[in-house]
Amino acid sequence: MGKQPVKMRAVVYALSPFQQKIMSGLWKDLPGKISHKVSENWISATLLLTPLVGTYTYVQNFKEKEKMEHRY
């Protein structure tokens, strides 16, 4: 019993130039999707952003006071 060669067929995958609307669904109605997510999760977004904005504002105010204090 010897080995017999088997013919292999190469499979080539390609995108058709007529069916390349793969990514269009992501950008379709993007402002509507964003506003829907924000309206669903506004409490979580507020609880996340309030400390960040407050800390940033405090640091900027503190740095400005330090600059003004050392100015004279």
UniProtKB/TrEMBL annotation:
The keyword Mitochondrion applies. One of its GO terms (cellular component) is respiratory chain complex III. InterPro entries: Cyt_b-c1_8-plants, Cyt_bc1_su8_sf. It is found in: Mitochondrion inner membrane. Keywords: Electron transport, Membrane, Mitochondrion, Mitochondrion inner membrane, Respiratory chain, Transmembrane, Transmembrane helix, Transport. Gene3D superfamilies: Cytochrome b-c1 complex subunit 8. It is a single-pass membrane protein. The keyword Membrane applies. Pfam families: Cyt_b-c1_8. One of its GO terms (biological process) is mitochondrial electron transport, ubiquinol to cytochrome c. Signal peptide: none annotated. It comes from the Eukaryota. PANTHER family: CYTOCHROME B-C1 COMPLEX SUBUNIT 8 (PTHR34559), CYTOCHROME B-C1 COMPLEX SUBUNIT 8-1, MITOCHONDRIAL (PTHR34559:SF6). Belongs to the UQCRQ/QCR8 family. This is Cytochrome b-c1 complex subunit 8.
